[in-house]
Amino acid sequence: MLIKHKNDSSQKKFFSSEWVPTKNSFVAKRVFEAILYVGVIFQLNTALAASTTSSPYTDKGVIYAKEALDAYAKINHGPDAELFVDPSIKQFLENSRGEKVLDVGCGAGDWSLYAAQYAAEVYGVDFQEDMIKNAEIRAKNLSASEKVHFAVGDATNLIFRNNFFDRVISLGLGCNLTITALEAHIAELKRVLKPGGVCFFSVPASLHVVFTDDSVSEADMVENIKKKLDTLPNNPSSDLIFKSLKEIEGMRRATFFLENNRLTLLTEKKKLVNGRDEWRKIRDTVVANRYYEKEFYISLFEKHGFKIEKIEENHFSSEKERQAYNAKVSPEKRLGSSYVNAAPVLVFYLKA
Fold this sequence. Notes:
Layout: H1 12-15, H2 26-50, H3 66-75, H4 78-84, H5 86-94, E1 100-104, H6 110-115, E2 121-126, H7 129-141, E3 148-152, E4 165-171, H8 179-192, E5 193-204, E6 211-212, H9 218-230, H10 238-246, E7 251-259, E8 262-265, E9 277-282, E10 285-290, H11 294-303, E11 307-312, H12 319-328, H13 338-341, E12 345-351
């Protein structure tokens, strides 16, 4: 179990190749987790301390408010991703038997714990300590603590040694990072993967589309949203944005940004801007995010030596298929007509 830290010279004695604890040692696991926590948390303190309720954006990632953390841990990424993305993630992780797997931006640990059913070892890191606490509780409840290692970690400066993992997942993390941090994150994924190792990299797509749950048409939803936005002051605080957008029912996904000091619904593709700070309503919660176009991701993958094996942009192939799906599921899982023409998530399959 070798790990490394790239920048902190004061921690080098803990991360040198001379420190090689026994693979299955309970003590080694605890030492590993303690070092991860101590060696990383001090790097994040500046970013976390600088964040306020009015600005969740930092150069290390996006700070989720406590309510957003709890909601996201509960809903994960919603019924649309459950339909269009989860089968692909499951297949990717089910092919990890005997491998070391890294889940960067692991959140509450759902996919780390899923991988633990198949992989030899699983490591999950996340920017926010509360996410890791949720993940550790889940691992303990599922008696998976000895196989899954969770720790607070920086996606732009991973503390694992080169060529350590066979398989890596980065699910919905790229949209939380600045342009500089996104490139550093992709470079780190490549660095920690073994030659020939594989990566599942997913990010939100179609951010200019308003996705609904089929209880209201897209046109009516847009009108309802604009009426709500008209009640907000100029430059609303993050707390007010969270509260106001959360009150809008029937919305699966929608994106908002500040334009001339007004919170504005994004409905035109031409207004998408790489790296801009945005807000996204995802089912029952609201999170701060950033947008990057598909071509921008592709350019960074190629720059850092990844081979793009496949790209998925899944959605319904027809209105008939959508209606057949809605007829089989409960109302809370139904999807509106926008899912026929637009994919909510973009998936890249990468090879080191």
